[in-house]
Amino acid sequence: MCAYRWVCGAPSVVGSRRLTSSGEYATPDWAEHEYLTAANTTLEAIYEGALDAGSQDAFGDDWDVESAGGIVKVDLGERGQFVANTQTPNRQIWLSSPVSGPWRFDWDIRKKGWYAKRDGSKLVDMLEDELSDLAEKGIRVRINIEDGVG
Question: Domain 33-134 sits in which CATH superfamily?
Answer without folding.
Answer: Frataxin/CyaY (3.30.920.10)
